[in-house]
Amino acid sequence: WVRQQLQLPQSCRVVLYFGRLHTMKRPLETIRAFAAAKTKDSHLVLVGPEDNVGVHACREEAERMGVGQRVHPLGAIYGEAKERYLLGSDLYVSLSTRENFGHTAAESLAAGTPALLSPGNDLSPELEPYQCGWFLQSDSIDEAASAMSAALACTDDERFKMGERGRDFIRIECGEAGFAESLRSLRHEAINQTK
Questions:
Q1: Per-10-residue mean pLDDT for the chain, 195 residues long?
Q2: What gap in Å lies between CA 38 and CA 21, rounded to an integer?
Q3: Which residues contact 180 (CB under 8 A, 6 or more apart)?
């Protein structure tokens, strides 16, 4: 659906930035990392409402970096279309400087899309054992580009397995039973500290 909607080749890889277009979320840096990754058969789709970075600024940055034909800043998308972008992408990327939980990362993982996350994403340490993506050690554009290149070089089977492990994380850690167990554990810890 995503490829058809954007008139992209069916064989191309789709990288999804999904969040507010805001300097803290680093959409322009995401475009720079995508350009530096030098993966010619891939496209970057930016979905999210404009905040202090606009769709026009994203287009300008993509042109400046020489990837204007392969970067698609779409602005805000909601409902069923949003779900289709989550399901139809090969990689979710967040280079954000700060994400307390990372709802969009969780939504992407629930859709079976592997994640590439900056150290500012608090979910990263929780996700690493699940091997459902790439977790950066710094905010370096070069490191992000290298990880993006590696992610896009994966086979469909490797990406599918990562997506399944991401779904497992959401089911186990974010489902009702996992959440209830976490609360019990926190309660038990708090009681023991007061003794």
A1: 95 96 98 96 97 98 98 96 95 95 90 96 92 97 98 95 95 75 70 74
A2: 23
A3: none
Q: Which residues 6+ apart lie within 8 Å of 8 measured at CB?
A: 2, 14, 43
Rounded to whole angstroms, the Cα distance separating 116 from 44 reads 13
pLDDT at 180: 64
Q: How many of the other CB atoms lie within 10 Å of CB of 116?
A: 24
pTM above 0.85, yes or no: yes
Which residue, chain included where needed, has tokens 């700060």? 98
Strand segments, DSSP code E, in 12-157 are: 13-18, 42-47, 71-75, 91-94, 115-117, 133-135
- φ/ψ of residue 152, rounded to 5: -75, -15
Full strand arrangement of the beta sheet holding 13-18: 71-75, 42-47, 13-18, 91-94, 115-117, 133-135
